[in-house]
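Input/output pair, single chain:
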Amino acid sequence: MKYYTKENSFEGLLYLLILTIPFFKGIPNIILIILALFFIVDLIRGRKISHLFLDEVFFFSVVGFLVIKALLNNTYLIDQKIYNGYLLAISGLIIFKKANNLPRLKQMVLLSVNLTAIASLVLISEYYFKKGFLPFEVTTDVNRALILERPYQGFYALIGVLICFELSKKAKKYKIALLLNAAFLIGFIVLISARLSLLSLFFIASVFFVFYYQSRFIVKATVLSALIGALLLIVLLNKNTANRFFIKKTYSESIEVASDYEPRLIIWDCAFEMSRQPDFNKLIGSVSYQTIQNHFLNCYDSKIEKPGKKEYYLAEKFNAHNQFIDFYLIGGFLGLSLFVIYFLKNFLLVKSNFTKTSFLLALLFFLIVENVLYRQFGCYLFGLLIVLIKAKEENNIKKIRQSL
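Output:
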């Protein structure tokens, strides 16, 4: 009975952690510390835990390499905040792996997603009744009206959509409710004009119909054309979404606006220039994250001509906005290779399973446009998604249905 109570306590705290991650900074970390104590007790009692580490050897190798390099260069303390994020991702990954009920874990994630979406809609409504218009034109206004920043809010909703579709296939009794939930979250993504999540959703749907859906070529081509048409309609008919994709009257005007308002065009150009500097070590990367930040700031100062725009970039201190570029800048070819191998290994492991592949693709796309591991929420979400991607399938359908 004591063991049973201990296991239930662990699961309960794990679910509470998932529910609090989007809303709080300190509370999730306190819960994680308590969960870590459970893990330490298991370690002392000699329970087998090697599998928790061996499956993630390449990701752990990336972090280990960067930490050792920072210690040797005496830069760990300078960049401690970022390395703490990596260690948080590892801690969360290990703790989430100890979940005993995967269907219930997914339900808690879905509940958390819905709570953030509903809370954001309340904030959006308050903004609308106060100002008389929706807050989707200016990024700062959008972020104030959402629980999470727009890219993360959209990505979290996307994960909820994928979970809804997965659970709807396994729990027929709740299929309609889950599909309605998916429709609600898709509508939410469109409403907040989360362009990456929208593109990811349509790409993942296209992958399903092209590679996983068993049908004739003409049917696949028709569905694919319909998906492209639906995406174009959403982009062209929704003013906020059109603005997010820089759709203007002419192609040249669209390019000009994108150059002015899409930070990644400048950021990635600066990252490329940085990688060609004489002091950049292509094998093991830059000396420190502080060095990388200084290079970015110098590049923004010299490359951006408009005073207001320059001041904005220098004040925001934009990072690489791409986890792969970030690992190359700090870890060189070695650091980037380990991270790429980690993803390739995971893809080869799950490619026959569409649900797991869809989670992996969603995470991959998000890592391409964000430094996910720079943020506390991103670190937790990374660990959680890796668990959803790699966890063994639940064979007992009855257990899945009972957990709903």
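The radius of gyration is 22 Å. The chain has 20 helices and no strands.
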